[in-house]
Predict the 3D structure of the following.
Amino acid sequence: MKFLIIIILLAAFIKNNVAQKPGVCPQTETCTIKNFFRSIFARLFLNPCNDDSFCRDNLKCCEVFCGKNSCVIPESGPIRPGNCPKPTGFGICIQSCSSDDDCPNIKTKCCSNGCGNVCMEV
């Protein structure tokens, strides 16, 4: 039992300390019914991922449709230090930023909220 607890704690530690790959995720589209069905297709047939460590070479784990992530070629652009929090469900479907450079506060990053991208403190 102790061994299982140690494995779970170690996995959680490793998961929370994954380095982000360079580059900026491409801007996502607003979540619509059409994009919702595209997100199902993306989950089934594209390279699903939870973070950048799931992606090979220079690919980055980015939201592609309605909160569904896939490994994609990142856009170049400045990335501020820190990691975005993992979305806990569907957020507000607004696209207020597409890169960290769009966020006016130096302590914020452009992060997915589960549906759109917004500036969040990290």
Residues 4-17 have pLDDT under 50 and may be disordered. The chain has two helices and four strands. The radius of gyration is 15 Å. Residues 16 and 83 are 9 Å apart (CA to CA).
